[in-house]
Amino acid sequence: MNAYLHIPFCTSICSYCDFTSFAGQESKITAYVEALCIEISNSSLAGPLRTVYFGGGTPSLLPPDQLGKILRSLQSKAGFDPEIEISMEANPETVDLERLKSYRSLGVNRLSFGAQAFQKEILRKMGRGHEWDRVEKAYSDARQAGFENINLDLMFGLAEQTLEMFEISIQKTLSLKPDHLSLYALQVEEGTPLAKQVKEGLVLPTEDEVADEYALAQAALSQNGFEQYEVSNFAVPGKSCRHNWNIWRGEDYWGFGVGAVGTVQGVRHSHGEDLTEYIRQFKKGQGDTIQLENLSPSIQAFEKLMLGLRTHQGVSKKELEQYATTNQVSFQAKFDLFEKKGFLSFASNHYKVTPKGYFVLNGLLEALVA
Ligand code: SF4
Description:
The protein contains 15 helices and 17 strands. It is globular and about 55 Å long. The chain folds into 2 domains: 2-248, TIM Barrel (Alpha-Beta Barrel), CATH 3.20.20.70; 297-366, Arc Repressor Mutant, subunit A (Orthogonal Bundle). Helix 1 runs parallel beside helix 2 (64-78) and helix 11 packs antiparallel against helix 12 (317-327). The strands form 4 sheets. The chain has a 9-stranded mixed β-sheet, sandwiched between helices. It has a 3-stranded antiparallel β-sheet with strand order 12-13-14, with no helix packed on it. It is α/β, with parallel strands linked by helices. The structure holds iron/sulfur cluster. Iron/sulfur cluster binds next to loops.
């Protein structure tokens, strides 16, 4: 079993952020952790847990004693597999050596730092609270604290970032020798400050420029021994994120905390996004803000294909044909064309998205719905 825990606190809100995150609410951390532990203890979570993932928000705003409480709740509820992976997202400006050592001694064994870009002016424009020297310091502190599995997040498609500037971000990142790199394209989400800036005239790179950045990153990472195992994720051998990988392969996972989502035995559970309401309800032992959805066989089959195509494992032709027959979708002609254009490869009865095809993945997936 896998568990995702959402820690929604942030020191400030980034211009592009569409996650469930709240700034200036750190005084609620203790109450939130209490509610989270009650939710875990009242759930029907059954272990042993093979992966635990703290995402956010900024999980590294959790004082170690609070993190310890959550981990103890999980362990007493479900037990931990001896090889458990415990991942935590962290913002560089929120950690120091002492805090990282405490996290490590509590059992966290994988860290993911939001680095995003090298250039100070770009980070400022995004509303990030750090500069690159904090990334380097946090990274070296994490190594000193004993972390042997570290991811760095980078973004591309950013306003006012040229291809040359992006290349510097990539080279600076590679010079740290991380084990894993996640690479996300900037998305303009409705209702964010970024969407407002774009409406007011902020110019973003063209699709071709964004594609060039992605291709540049793919080439540089491949030259440096990274394998692309998913559309946004690259790892040195043996260091892919087991939590995400399990989910992409269709394993069950529990989501705990405000805004969290999970799927267990074909039922998706989704939490509401109101922090105060979450704390109020779960402290009383209620869970009225959780919505349940039974996933139909057709939705489950589509999701399995979609997740498979996102990864380097691809999907079997047999599964595609079964899905297409049940849902009256004709994919073959489109997939033949994608293959001809070099977006898909077909071997051993499996379709796999090529490095070039990852950039147009959404278009490929549309072939399965039309
Ligand atoms: S740190 Fe992450 S979760 Fe927090 S505001 Fe920025 S993008 Fe959103």
